[in-house]
Amino acid sequence: MSKRIDVKDLDIYYGDFHAVKNVSMTIEPRSVTAFIGPSGCGKSTVLRTLNRMHEVIPGAYVKGEVAIDGTNLYGRGVDPVDVRRQVGMVFQRPNPFPTMTIKENVLAGVRLNSKRISSKAADELTEKALRGANLWNEVKDRLDKPGSGLSGGQQQRLCIARAIAIQPEVILMDEPCSALDPISTLAIEDLINELKDRYTVVIVTHNMQQAARVSDKTGFFNLEATGKPGELVEYDSTQNIFNNPGQQATEDYISGRFG
Ligand SMILES: Nc1ncnc2c1ncn2[C@@H]1O[C@H](COP(=O)(O)OP(=O)(O)OP(=O)(O)O)[C@@H](O)[C@H]1O
Ligand SMILES: [Mg+2]
């Protein structure tokens, strides 16, 4: 299920604004890759180009290539809806649909893809996704209660269950723990560690310890000055980025000298 992502010469624009320049990187399957860097350097922007969510913003476009197992997502005839089925996304704030039950939330993405499934299959999928998100034991007796009745950390795991219910190959997470307490954060980190057995995971985080704990590889993004495009300064094993970075800017950032 897990897939390799090859980003090649990617430039990202919001209308006239050149937000990120010249990113090339290979993200290995069954691994966790962390994007770090100061606010505004383009981490979320790059992440959204990996499932064509970027172009949902009016005037936004990219140049270059993002290939998943060799197929360019931006190639002719590729349907962005299919892309988002393969590449799921979890956002910074847990965003369960408030009027839906826990179970309906898990199945929301599946139903959106207009797949009709039997009620037995729906039950099975709900359990599987909730187990996969480490949430099953906490909610199995209240699947028909509103998703909004869960704690923040549980809601975020519910959103992860919703993302994995569509059986993607890649899961993107944009600061998934920034609205969570430390215990819920550790629960999500454990989960990310398990998810990489099956999925390719890319996570944006401002938490250096988190990047060091959960990721195999780390990309450090930075920008020269306000108004200039962000760029990928260094991309290497997390070990090297944190212990032996190749660039002064990386070292300054991880040691807390700026950002
Ligand atoms: N919808 C948008 N329209 C226009 N410009 C945008 C939009 N979203 C982001 N930008 C700009 O693109 C640049 C990169 O933003 P992005 O949100 O990717 O940064 P980031 O690294 O994720 O920052 P943070 O750590 O604060 O989340 C910024 O200059 C930002 O103002
Ligand atoms: Mg961001």
Automatic annotation (TrEMBL):
Record bears the keyword Translocase: yes
Superkingdom of this protein's organism: Bacteria
GO terms for cellular component: membrane
Keyword Transport part of the UniProt annotation: yes
GO biological process: phosphate ion transmembrane transport
Protein name: ABC transporter domain-containing protein
Gene Ontology molecular function: ATP binding; ATP hydrolysis activity; phosphate transmembrane transporter activity
Pfam families assigned to the protein according to its UniProt record, in alphabetical order: ABC_tran
Domain ABC transporter residues, every copy: 5-248
Annotated source species: Serinicoccus chungangensis
Classification via InterPro entries: AAA+_ATPase, ABC_transporter-like_ATP-bd, ABC_transporter-like_CS, P-loop_NTPase, PstB-like
UniProtKB keywords: ATP-binding, Nucleotide-binding, Translocase, Transport
SMART domains given in the database record: AAA (SM00382)
